[in-house]
Design brief:
heterodimer, A: alpha+beta, Alpha-Beta Plaits, two-stranded antiparallel sheet, 4 helices, 6 strands, globular, B: alpha+beta, Aldehyde Ferredoxin Oxidoreductase,  A, domain 1, Aldehyde Ferredoxin Oxidoreductase Protein, subunit A, domain 2, Aldehyde Ferredoxin Oxidoreductase Protein, subunit A, domain 3, 3 domains, 6-stranded mixed sheet, 26 helices, 40% helix, 13% strand
């Protein structure tokens, strides 16, 4: 299933949200069984499905709600860069999603991001 | 699997009983799915002459075999017997509700009965509950959606709901989805209101599987590419449906001042170009759609500052703009938002107010009857106030909430002459005297005055007809074929369910390939068109069963009698004899009885609808 999700945050503004691959990931800190690690090859924070117990600690910890429990497989899943070549980037017709490997620590919760964006766009709305 | 989720979800609100029924894909095959199979369900599961607002009527939320798949630009529809027209009514809506319903595991949601107390339906994959909605009753659609997201602590659930207009049984209330998208026409929301069903909230985590995933994926990628590279869609992507405003007005197709004229001198103010300059802030798309015809509009200054809505669509600019004589873009934007918020169809609302305005200007409605509202054409303040009155059924709003057919019958005084509706459904934003075959399309459309069933204007403006000929714009000869072809093809495409705007780029053949790859069926062009004809005749049979006859297949007298005052088609009417000629030709092509308008026994038999024919002719 898709690991990038569209959240309708602010009425009328739907925003695609995906894992920020934080420098100090909260999900890694929260995981009681050390199932989440940075992948050597892709540099994506990845879940070891064999170890994951689907306890949900990581989903509570993630500020971006970018890690969630798979509805049937019963493991935590998140963006893993599709092995280094993300499908969402290839598919987006508006080139709104791009893939760059830069150190980045913008751990703003998506609600805040949406609010900031909304304020920017809807400046006149009281 | 085969493109379907595999289940029909039946909910009886009277008893609270919920029944999940397996979808028999062999039975569906004859009707493709979507519109077609929903119409069959409506025929099978409602008694003849069912009261549209009674418990025996159904509200069917229908998806098609392509909805929620990788195929771009698919939609869902809401099918019910309309309280406005008394016909089978299928209203389409994009957004994300249809695919979510399918992800939850249901192709069709069939609601019957009437809940004693306000209720809403919560569908969480396998878990389906009828819940108390007293705390939501009276709330507008925006708030309802927000509250339900809060209640279920999930911002990604999808909600279809009604506003105060639906609760108060305004005959043209809509079902609101994703805040700004509506299954609007024909009173779908009214039927929900009559069942005390405030909303349906759904969370689906499944996927839709296809028979031949590799081929399907490849075809879907081609379809995507076709949309991205289609030149004709460039304007649609940039200006949405607003791209048609100036063209339409120039070609005498833009209803103005209750159809008194078909050219609006201020059309430029309402065009997509004008919206782009003044109000749009962001593009919006439905599920898996690269066309993104929607735009988030914000009015930032002056009287209507603070208005936020998605749009404005062409049809809304026509009915709430030109048809009411209003050229103030901000005012129309606000009117659009009010309609969405209160749960009204912008087209029927605009048509009803335009009718009231003409009555007022002619002295048929007095100041006393309008509660002091000066309902003159162009008075946008009065228009916006009137929308609220209609939704709450206050004062004159109570009468106009019945739609122009019933309102004109009650008002009398010759006002029926300019009551612009067909079978009770207010005419949309493509006028008739500038393109006579559009009159035939309206008169014969299955749900009354609707422009989506056939759009023969294209043939009159130069496209080749289905038999490869060119058509003379004002000559009634040979006009029936284009209308019939559009209707049949449309019925099939609406069963997939494809969006109007993607069909041109993707092309019918590719849709058929997609359908086959998804389902494992063996459709070809002939079979696909025949299925469309079958669906069209099935719905006609339903309408005949509910009391529609040949005399209902007509147009408002104004179209026959009042010459256009301006524009490229100045001085024109559609002569009654021209119209009769088109209609006669159409009946012959269809195999319908020239006197009653009912499909003949053989016609139905040849389309594999013998059981319908037997039931229809049973004394």
């Amino acid at each position: 299933m898709s690991r990038i999700r569209v959240f309708p945050y602010f009425p009328g503004l739907d925003i695609a949200t995906v894992c920020y691959q934080c420098e100090k990931p909260k999900c890694v800190e929260a995981c009681p069984v050390n199932a989440i690690k940075r992948d050597e090859k892709t540099q994506a924070i990845s879940v070891n499905e064999g170890v994951c117990t689907a306890c949900g600690s990581c989903t509570q910890a993630c500020p971006a709600k970018a890690i969630f429990i798979h509805p049937t497989k019963n493991v935590a899943i998140k963006c893993d860069f599709c092995g280094g070549d993300p499908e969402c980037v290839k598919h987006c017709p508006e080139q709104a999603v791009e893939f760059r490997l830069t150190p980045f620590d913008a751990r703003l919760p998506p609600e805040q991001l949406a609010k900031d964006l909304a304020a920017l766009i809807l400046e006149a709305k009281k | 699997m085969n493109g379907f989720a595999g289940k029909i979800l039946n909910v009886d609100l009277t008893s609270g009983r919920i029944l999940k029924e397996n979808l028999d894909s062999d039975k569906v095959e004859t009707y493709i799915g979507g519109k077609g199979y929903a119409a069959r369900l409506l025929w099978d599961r409602t008694p003849a002459r069912v009261d549209p607002l009674g418990p025996d009527n159904l509200v069917i939320f229908a998806t098609g075999p392509l909805t929620g798949t990788l195929c771009p630009s698919t939609r869902m529809c809401v099918v019910t017997k309309s309280p406005l027209t008394g016909t089978c009514n299928d209203s389409y809506v994009g957004g994300h509700f249809g695919n979510e319903l399918k992800f939850a595991g249901y192709d069709y949601l069939v609601v019957r009965g009437k809940s004693e107390k306000p209720a809403y339906l919560w569908i969480d994959d396998d878990n389906v509950e009828v819940r108390n909605a007293r705390w939501l009753w009276g709330k507008d659609t925006f708030e309802t959606e927000e509250k339900l997201r809060e209640k279920h602590e999930d911002r990604t659930i999808r909600v279809a709901c009604i506003g105060p207009a639906g609760e108060k049984l305004v005959r043209y209330a809509c079902v609101n989805v994703d805040l700004y998208r509506q299954a609007a026409r024909g009173g779908t929301g009214t039927v929900m209101g009559s069942k005390h069903l405030k909303a349906v909230a759904v969370r689906g985590t499944g996927t839709v599987e296809t028979k031949d995933p590799e081929r399907f994926e490849q075809l879907a990628a081609e379809a995507y590419k076709a949309i991205e590279t289609n030149e004709g869609l460039y304007t649609m992507k940039r200006w949405g449906t607003g791209r048609s405003v100036i063209f339409s007005s120039d070609q005498s197709l833009y209803p103005t001042r209750n159809y008194q004229s078909e050219t609006f001198e201020c059309a430029e103010n309402l065009s997509g170009e004008s919206m782009e300059r003044k109000i749009w802030v962001k593009r919006k798309a439905c599920f898996n759609c690269p066309i993104h015809c929607g735009h988030l509009a914000v009015v930032k200054s002056a009287e209507y500052a603070g208005t936020v809505v998605e749009g404005i669509e062409y049809e809304t600019t026509a009915l709430l703009g030109a048809d009411c004589g209003v050229d103030d873009l901000a005012a129309v934007t606000n009117a659009n938002m009010l309609c969405d918020k209160l749960g009204l169809d912008t087209l029927s609302t605009g048509g009803s107010i335009a009718f009231a305005m003409e009555c007022y200007e002619k002295g048929i409605l007095t100041d006393e009857e309008t509660d002091g509202l000066e309902l003159r054409f162009g008075n946008h303040k009065a228009m916006n106030q009137m929308i609220v009155k209609i939704a709450n059924r206050e004062g004159l709003g109570n009468l106009m909430a019945e739609g122009v057919r019933i309102a004109s019958e009650k008002i009398g005084k010759d006002s029926q002459r300019f009551a612009m509706h067909v079978k009770g459904l207010e005419l949309p934003g493509w006028a008739i005297r500038g393109a006579p075959s559009m009159g035939l399309a309206y008169a014969t459309a299955d749900r009354g005055g609707c422009h989506q069933r056939a759009w023969p204007i294209s043939y009159e403006l130069g496209s080749k007809t289905p038999d490869g000929k060119t058509s003379e714009r004002y000559n009634p000869q040979g006009k029936a074929l284009g209308t019939k072809y559009d209707q049949d093809l449309g019925a099939s495409l609406y069963s997939l369910i494809a969006c109007d705007f993607s069909t041109g780029a993707i092309g019918t053949q590719r849709y058929i390939d997609l359908l086959n790859a998804a389902t494992g069926w063996t459709y070809d062009m002939d079979k696909f068109m025949e299925a469309g004809e079958r669906i069209w005749n099935l719905i006609r049979a339903f309408n005949v069963r509910e009391g529609i006859t040949r005399k209902d297949d007509t147009l408002p007298p104004r179209i026959f009698e009042d010459p256009l005052p301006a524009g490229i088609a100045k001085g024109r009417v559609v002569p009654r004899k021209d119209f009769e000629r088109m209609l006669k030709e159409y009946y012959e092509l269809r195999g319908w009885d020239a006197n009653t308008g009912a499909p003949k026994y053989e016609t139905l038999k040849n389309l594999n609808l013998e059981d319908i024919a037997n039931q229809l002719t049973r004394p």
